[in-house]
TrEMBL record:
Transmembrane segments: none annotated. The lineage of its organism: Eukaryota, Fungi, Dikarya, Ascomycota, Pezizomycotina. GO terms for molecular function: ATP binding; ATP hydrolysis activity. SUPFAM superfamilies: P-loop containing nucleoside triphosphate hydrolases (SSF52540). It comes from Zymoseptoria tritici (strain CBS 115943 / IPO323) (Speckled leaf blotch fungus). This is AAA+ ATPase domain-containing protein. Gene3D superfamilies: P-loop containing nucleotide triphosphate hydrolases (3.40.50.300).
Length: 247
C-alpha cells in the first residue's frame, strides 16, 4: 500500500492503540471470534512482553521474527499489555530507554496492522504519539454494561454447558437486578472470575454431598454469588481505602 513517508519502507503499517482500565474489552476487541480479526478474515498473532523480552538486543531479534511472521501470514498483530514497551524514556533509565527505542525502530518498519493495548496511556513516550494512526479509549464499565457482560457469560455457559451446569433464576435475578451488586465496580475480567468461582463452589458442594442428583447437573444458586460478590465488594472497598491513604 502507498505510504506518505518520504523514507522508503517506513510508515507503511497501521498502528492502533487501545487504552483504558483493565477488563473493559481492549483485548476482546481484537482477539475474539466475533471481533476485528474474524471480521477481516485474517489470522491473529497475539503477543505479550513475555514473548518479546525486556533486553534491548533480544527484543530487536524477537520483534523482527514476530513482525516478519505477521507480514508473511497477513495476520493482525496484537501486543497485549504493552506498557513497558511504550513507557516514557528518562535520563537515568538507560536500559528501559533502549527497550523503548528498539520497539520504536521496529514498529516504524512494520508493514502490517498492529494493535497495542495499555492501561497507562498517560505514561506513553511522546515519540509514539506521532506514530499511532488511531487511538481508541475505553472507559470503566457502567452498571448497564456490567449487566450485559453478566448476561453474555450466562448465555455462553448455557450454550456450552447446559447439560452440566444450571444457573438458578433467582441467582440470575440477584446478579442482574440487585442494587448492591450494581454498585460494585467490577470489570469484565472480575465478572468472569466471580462466575467461575461461584460455579466451583457449587461443584464442590455437589461432590461433598456424595449424593449427586439423578440428572448429574450442578446448580448454581443465589447464595453462591452472594458469598463471592461479598468478598469482591470488601476487596474493592479495601483497595479504595488504601489508595486514598496513599494520596
Amino acid at each position: 500500500s502507498w505510504s506518505a513517508d518520504f523514507i522508503e519502507g517506513k510508515g507503511a503499517g497501521q498502528i492502533v492503540l487501545l487504552h483504558g482500565p483493565p477488563g473493559v474489552g481492549k483485548t476482546y476487541t481484537v482477539g475474539t471470534t466475533t471481533c476485528i480479526a474474524a471480521w477481516l478474515e485474517r489470522p491473529l498473532l497475539s503477543l505479550t512482553v513475555a514473548d518479546i523480552g525486556t533486553v534491548e538486543t533480544s527484543v530487536e531479534f524477537e520483534l523482527v521474527k514476530w513482525f516478519r511472521l505477521a507480514e508473511a501470514w497477513n495476520a493482525i498483530l496484537l501486543v497485549d499489555e504493552a506498557d513497558i514497551l511504550l513507557e516514557q524514556r528518562k535520563n537515568r533509565g538507560l536500559a528501559r530507554n533502549g527497550l523503548v527505542s528498539a520497539f520504536l525502530r521496529r514498529m516504524e518498519y512494520f508493514r502490517g496492522m498492529l494493535f497495542l493495548t495499555t492501561n497507562r496511556v498517560g505514561q506513553i513516550d511522546d515519540a509514539f504519539m506521532s506514530r499511532i494512526h488511531v487511538a481508541i479509549g475505553y472507559e470503566s464499565l457502567t452498571p448497564e454494561i456490567r449487566r450485559k457482560v453478566w448476561t453474555s457469560f450466562f448465555d455462553k455457559l448455557e450454550r456450552e454447558r447446559a447439560d452440566k451446569i444450571v444457573i438458578g433464576e433467582n441467582a440470575k435475578k440477584y446478579v442482574l437486578e440487585d442494587k448492591g451488586v450494581q454498585n460494585i465496580n467490577l470489570n469484565g475480567r472480575e465478572i468472569r472470575n466471580a462466575l467461575q468461582t461461584a460455579i466451583t463452589m457449587a461443584e464442590h458442594e455437589c461432590l461433598a454431598k456424595k449424593k449427586p442428583s439423578g440428572s448429574g447437573l450442578v446448580f448454581v444458586e443465589e447464595g453462591h454469588f452472594r458469598r463471592v460478590l461479598r468478598l469482591s465488594e470488601k476487596f474493592h472497598t479495601y483497595i479504595t481505602k488504601i489508595r486514598m491513604e496513599d494520596e
